[in-house]
Here is the input.
Amino acid sequence: MLLKSWKFLSLCALLTVAICLFMTMNTAAESLPPETESTEAVTEPSEAPVPPETTPPTQEPVTPSEPTEAPTEPPATEPEPEPEPDIITDIEVRLYNDHKEGFNPVDGAAYCKDIAALLLKHAPKGLRISIGCAMAYTEGGAGKNGVYTRANNCFGIRATKGWSGWVFARSTQTVYKDYATAVKYGASDFFRAYPTMEDSVKDYIRHMQNSRYGKVLTITNDYDYAHYIINQGYGPEHLADDWVWLVKYYDLSKYNIDWSLS
Here is the structure.
């Protein structure tokens, strides 16, 4: 009986030990940290990224810039001309036979020839060269009259207040720059003055074309031509006959132009 009780007690003790061991092992297992999978994702190596294709920027053609001109210096300004002096002293006059006084047919012919050449150069239709030469002969003294030798005035045309050119005063034998200046110096007896003989001839032609004398260009003979000019107030009556005589004496008709052929 005691033996059976001891066996029963031994079996209970073993069972208790086994239960204790089991509980001990279970507790130890629970105290260990649980095994977890790695949270780091395993990624396969990817190919190197291909940069996106980009169109290269189009460059606009570079136009060569025009060369800049070097700065130029401003043109030098010409000095203003000095005002014309009151008295004109540098007139050049063509003299005949060294300006000897007295009548000389040779000088007269040379003078008329020069006048004829200038009249022919500028003549309007109807102008009678013959009478023009004779007028220049008497008014310019065949190149010896003071109005000619000092002022290049071949035809004795007077200067009035309306004349804007040079003025020769016979009272002082001086050429002034204009009418007002001549008056300022107290001079008198005024005639027009010219830089050259040709200027005088051109002014005479303008004179013959004005409203006072213009109709003379329709006259075709020397006698009537000369007397018409005198009747318009050019000078004393005897001058017309003097001109006609000079035309015959120097054969000035040879310079005339047959305007009927033009």
